[in-house]
Amino acid sequence: MTTPLALLKAIRAGRLLEVRALLDAGVPPEFDDGQGDPGLPLGMACFMGFNDIARELIERGARVNRPDNRLPTSPLAMAVKGRKPETVRLLLEMGADLPEGMETGLSAPEVMLAQLKAIRNGYSQARTREEASQAETFEEIQVSGCSGLDTQVLEADVIRAAQEMALKHKL
Fold first, then answer.
1. Both 10 and 80 in a single domain?
2. Which domain holds residue 127?
3. Mutual angle of helices 40-48 and 4-13, in 10-degree steps
4. Among 2, 27, 106, 123, which lies 20 to 30 A Cα-Cα from 155?
């Protein structure tokens, strides 16, 4: 069955392969049945914290932003309502606009890093080519398995540089 209802059922069950098959069969990632929100598939995936499904829907054309991301049915609000900070991070990295004062469950540096990744990867709205190339100068460094290593100086430098860039880009 290749219907929007089948897509919603696959999303609700968290079945990525089935979601992909339905999208490949022509079910749109957003649809308007006249009874609800066309962004229901992405909103549902975000509320439930299915990041792989949310990413698939976005890459297939689902809109990460709504006219007002504070609306309870926006993907960002659904992820916040579902208490899924990793999904909030994914949405910000995929270009979601964060309304001022909205609580996300992420720290300010985490939000800033996600927004910079969106700029670097070309997902952010209204960014110039020059701004995107400047964002590419940020490199994410992941240090795992090191004990006794003091990274506070490195972290402070990165946070300071990110804050300067954020001010420059008015994030």
1. yes
2. 107-171
3. 10
4. 123
